[in-house]
Design a protein that fits this description.
With about 350 residues, the protein is an alpha+beta fold. It has 10 helices and 9 strands. It has helices at about 1-45, 75-80, 120-130, 160-165, 175-195, 210-215, 280-295, 300-305, 310-315, 325-355, and strands at about 60, 70, 85-90, 95-100, 105-110, 140-145, 150, 215-220, 225. The strands form 3 sheets. Strands 3-4-5-7-6 form a 5-stranded antiparallel β-sheet, sandwiched between helices. Strand 1 (about 60) and strand 2 (about 70) form a beta hairpin.
């Protein structure tokens, strides 16, 4: 009987200690998270993708993995003599895309597909040159004489492949709501960067449906998001009262923002001259659909959706001026991610302690 009583007392003491420690641990985690976020925010790490391969090369230079020094973008002569074309890997209206080989590295060679799209091709080149950052695929060189762009190769390809990549054998540990939410956060960070870019506020116009939108981005092998196809990024110039229109054809469907649809119904034939212009708020309308796709159907993804419900409802406001900015989207995504990961850490610690009782 004495042994039983001693065991019960020991169990009771452990339970009291546990109940005391759990709130204390919660406080410590909260303080630690706040301090960590303030530190990272001060360093600017929460405002851009965390890329282990990121380089600090000056403008006009690049460095690939394994290279010790930065080197200038490759010239026409160097591309012609040093890059070996292996096989075609893509074809669009503007570009023919080839897998190539240069200096022991696989690279992507993009060539102008048709002369009538030369303006789009060279616009994309200027955007690549001017927007080089951790958000954008690395430019390795170009040739304007025989229109060619050389960029870094990422074997996972389009961000539209995220499900097939994360569901394949060997990727199970990464097919989590945390990893998928980070991809959505990096997508949002790029749009935040694009709307406040060194080249002025830009609109991601090649985004008339979900798959088309996802195809503008690459998924890296270390599971980051890079903007890749920048052929259609018109400038919003508010000081000159210049807005944009994505192309000259009538857009349709629920994916595009309401202001991108023909506003005069079927009674008036579509006219590009009569179509009202719009601004970067069209990108924000599409954010909930892209994020919903990236979150997938893994355990915990519905909890994330629940926490983002109000924000995403605001993104879908029919009046563009009522939608949040991409800064607000990024800040909310970051806060939700940190809150949920903190809760997950606390739950794991509490579960482990209870199992030891």
């Amino acid at each position: 009987m004495q042994v039983t009583t001693s065991g019960n007392q020991g169990s009771s003491i452990r339970q009291r200690v546990t109940l005391t420690l759990v709130p204390l641990i919660a406080v410590i985690l909260t303080v630690t998270t706040i301090f960590r976020n303030e530190l990272l925010d001060a360093l600017g790490w929460l405002k851009r993708p965390v890329d282990s391969k990121s380089d600090s090369c000056p403008s006009g230079y690049f460095r690939l993995e394994g290279m010790k020094d930065c080197m200038p973008w490759l010239s026409c002569e160097m591309i012609r003599s040093e890059v070996v074309v292996i096989e075609p890997i893509g074809q669009g209206a503007v570009k023919q895309v080839f897998l190539g080989h240069w200096n022991g590295n696989r690279v992507v060679l993009s060539r102008l597909a048709a002369s009538k799209f030369s303006d789009d091709f060279f616009h994309g080149l200027e955007m690549l040159k001017g927007l080089q950052s951790p958000h954008v695929v690395k430019l390795l060189g170009f040739c304007e004489e025989d229109p060619t762009i050389l960029t870094e190769y990422h074997p996972f390809g389009s961000l539209a492949n995220v499900d097939s990549v994360l569901e394949q054998e060997g990727q199970g540990d990464f097919n989590t709501w945390e990893v998928r939410f980070q991809l959505a956060l990096e997508y949002a960070r790029f749009l935040r960067y694009l709307h406040n870019s060194p080249l002025g506020p830009r609109v991601m116009c090649d985004s008339n449906d979900l798959i088309k939108t996802l195809s503008q981005y690459l998924l890296t092998t270390d599971l980051h998001v890079l903007a890749n196809d920048l052929d259609a990024l018109p400038l919003v110039n508010r000081s000159a009262r210049v807005l944009v229109k994505c192309g000259h054809r009538q857009l349709q469907g629920d994916f595009v923002a309401p202001e991108q649809l023909w506003p005069f119904g079927n009674t008036v034939p579509f006219s590009d001259q009569l179509m009202p212009p719009y601004d970067e708020k069209t990108d924000i309308w599409k954010v909930p659909d892209v994020t919903d796709f990236l979150l997938g159907q893994v355990e915990g993804s519905d909890v994330v959706r629940l926490h983002l419900f109000q924000l995403h409802r605001d993104c879908k406001r029919h009046k563009p001026q009522l939608r949040p900015s991409m800064l607000t989207v990024v800040q909310t995504y970051t806060a939700v991610y940190n809150s949920l990961t903190q809760e997950s850490e606390l739950f794991g610690i509490r579960t482990e302690m209870l199992h030891e009782l």
